[in-house]
Amino acid sequence: MLKNRIYKYFTIEIFKSFLTILFAFTVIAWTVRAVNFLDLVVDNGHSVKTYFLFSFLNVTNILTKFIPLSFLLALMLSIIKLERQNEFIILWTSGVNKIKIVNLFFLISLIIFSIQIVFSAFITPTALNKSRSLIRLSNFDSLSSVIKINDFSDSFKNLTFYVEEKDSNNNMKNIFIRDESNTFNNLISGEKNSNNTTIIAKSGFISKKKLILFNGVIQTQNDKGELNNINFTKTDLSLNAVTTRSITAPKLQETKTTDLINCIKLKNLEERKKIINCPDQGMNKNIVETLSRRFGMPIYVPLISLICCFLLTSSGGQKSNSSKKYLIFFMGFIILILAEIMVRYSGFSKIHTALYFTIPLILIPFVYIILLRNFIYEKVKK
């Protein structure tokens, strides 16, 4: 009964440290990334609401990447804290076997392993896909925030804007618009083959989803190279058809895990075309790398827990004990770095993929046996 309480206490301490460190890393990284996302408002004209939702949905991606490092730090700090408080000495003198504590830490690592699998394989791709759909479905909120004075703005697809002057009320002077996508083609005679519309106006302003221009000319060029000019004193341009240059197609990391697995399994060309980011034939190394990252990286978490358990072994003295702490942290950190490097090469061949998954699976029982032998040697030595 007492041992169960002790195990519960250790588990709570580790999870408290883990969640605190993970939260701190995530907030710092998310803040930095959220600043980069300001381009959605400044350059692409999306609403502030879209910006905040997009930024919030990217939190899961950051959180998932910091889980292994946060667990490494949490487990090490928890072991060091419990050691300084003489918690372990009480356990050892009461007859608790060290390997049972190792098993407890390993069990906790399997819980962290499961959490990372759920996030990396299911929650994060879904959240990222949702964030991309926000950009795809939302229109820009403010044209005036995108258009800069004395600068050719190409934030919109196949549209170029130039404004010489603009006041605080968004009244503009000397406006130049180059339309290469027939967005404003309905202003001219209605010829379907007209393209490359150029609009020049002396002044104008933006009202809701309309650009109202005064005293200008609209020039179009058809497929035969013939020009058509229309002078106007006032015209309204609807901005509903204007689209930004924001990437709207889901990236590979935003694709569902089931779709990526089906892309590898399916051989039929028509079936593969239905899956986003799936090549017509062959196996895309980026898809294998993405799947390896989602399912392979969590396997290194249990290995990290066993590496940290070497802190439970006896040391020669205080100086030796201090050096051992740094060495063990360095070993755990190097394993995470190597895992990150190897995952980038996992898609090059089946051998690389197999190595990435089998290395931690081989090392886990190997390290566990070394720990067991060290604990047995300590007992014999005593």
Structure in a nutshell:
With 382 residues, this protein is an alpha+beta fold. 57% of the residues lie in helices and 16% in strands. It folds into two domains: 2-138 and 250-381, no CATH class; 153-238, no CATH class.
Give a written overview of the molecule:
The protein has helices spanning 2-36, 39-42, 48-57, 59-84, 87-93, 98-137, 257-265, 269-273, 285-296, 300-308, 318-345, 350-381; strands at 153-156, 159-166, 171-179, 194-207, 210-222, 227-238. With 382 residues, the protein is of the alpha+beta class. It folds into two domains: 2-138 and 250-381, no CATH class; 153-238, no CATH class. The chain has a six-stranded antiparallel β-sheet, with no helix packed on it. Strand 2 (159-166) and strand 3 (171-179) form a beta hairpin. Helix 3 (48-57) runs antiparallel to helix 6 and helix 6 packs antiparallel against helix 10.
